[in-house]
Design brief:
There is one protein chain. By secondary structure, the chain is of the alpha/beta class. Helices cover 44% and strands 14% of the residues. It has a 7-stranded parallel β-sheet with strand order 1-9-8-7-6-5-4. The protein has a two-stranded antiparallel ribbon with strand order 2-3. Strand 6, helix 8 and strand 7 form a beta-alpha-beta unit. The longest helix is centred in the middle third of the chain and has 25 residues.
Length: 337
């Protein structure tokens, strides 16, 4: 059965809005064809953003928030401790609302290269500039993900938990286009074998079906598959022909492919479920794939960036994802039976 899910981000800036986000996600996606996920509300501040939330699961290294962003330090600063506390509270909320849940759950963390390109070394500039530091950060992330996964499993009686690595900066890391601290230079490109090795460490500790999400153009999907990703998540609007070929190979190999089909932010006019369903079917037709053959590997999601949507559209986008997933599961033509 085709599934419906989300990338992770959600609108809102306080604890009450977080509780409502969990209610909506569990309410709309707990039953088939849903794959519920742990919402992220980055508008709550740096501790709740992609980087801060991921550093919260890295408990063997210390970090602090500086004017230029997160920095590796000898011990955990107040903002790192705040990020851990906020993540714990979010998991408490999930645990309270997911009583009796028996399906599959998804959680999200930043990948090692997005972290390395976002976090500074103690003396400045990015961890990306230091081979030893970026290796240490990737290994600490791998261990932190394993602990985080065990904590989620302890709290929620899910059949299994999918861990999604978010790697929006990976293409820039490989291309050598990440700016230095001065802004006048660029960090050296990371060679694909090293990039794949670090990703492999984290993916190996992320359970039996690790995913990687990227909303960036020129994402190296083949490298991600080679590193151990068994699910690929992308916005349909940024995919080129070469990208689509790799996603088709993944589907034919029985791996998951999540497509960001529904607009992330309030559209005008709102697309109907029939038009969205037909968009996916056209894609499968172009790729020469039989919807019946690959439908169980497909996941329908909103595009990346739903933190900028209105709460009403976030709920509606989730409903549309579920409707499109049901249509795709109903028949090759995408028409409900």
């Amino acid at each position: 059965m085709t599934l419906a899910s989300g990338v992770g981000s959600w609108p809102g800036s306080d604890a009450e809005e977080y509780a409502e986000a969990v209610r909506v996600v569990l309410g709309e996606l707990s039953d088939p064809p849903g794959l519920p996920y742990l919402p992220e509300l980055p508008a709550r501040g740096p501790a709740a953003g992609l980087v801060g939330r991921t550093l919260a699961v890295v408990d063997t290294l210390g970090f602090d928030l500086q004017p230029a962003g997160w920095r590796l330090t000898d011990g955990s600063g107040i903002d790192h401790r705040r990020a851990r506390s906020m993540l714990g509270q979010d998991l408490d909320q999930l645990e309270d609302q997911a009583q009796g849940f028996q399906g599959v759950l998804k959680v999200q963390v930043a990948g090692p290269w997005t972290l390395a390109a976002s976090v500074e070394r103690p003396r400045g500039d990015k961890v990306l500039a230091d081979h030893g530091a970026r290796r240490e950060l990737a290994q600490a992330l791998a261990e932190g993900v394993a602990v985080h996964l065990a904590d989620v499993r302890r709290r929620v009686d899910a059949e299994h938990v999918v861990v999604q690595l978010d790697e929006p900066v990976l293409p820039a890391v490989l291309a050598g286009s990440v700016p230095t601290a001065s802004g006048f230079g660029r960090h050296r490109s990371v060679h694909p074998p090293e990039a794949g090795e670090a990703l492999g460490w984290v993916l190996a500790r992320a359970g039996g079906e690790p995913w990687v999400h990227s909303c960036a153009a020129q994402t190296p999907w083949s490298l991600l598959r080679g590193a151990g990703a068994r699910g690929l998540s992308a916005d349909l609007g940024v995919l080129g022909a070469a990208d689509l070929d790799v996603l088709a190979e993944a589907l034919e190999a029985g791996e998951r492919v999540a497509l960001g089909v529904v607009p992330a932010n309030d559209p005008d006019p709102e697309p109907g479920e029939k038009a969205l369903t037909e968009r996916v079917l056209r894609l499968l037709d172009v790729l020469g794939l039989d919807p019946d053959a690959v439908g169980e590997q497909l996941v329908v999601t909103p595009a990346c960036g739903m933190a900028g949507a209105s709460p009403a559209w976030a709920r509606r986008a989730t409903e549309l994802c579920a409707a499109v997933a049901r249509n795709l599961a109903a028949s090759p033509a995408g028409e409900p039976r």
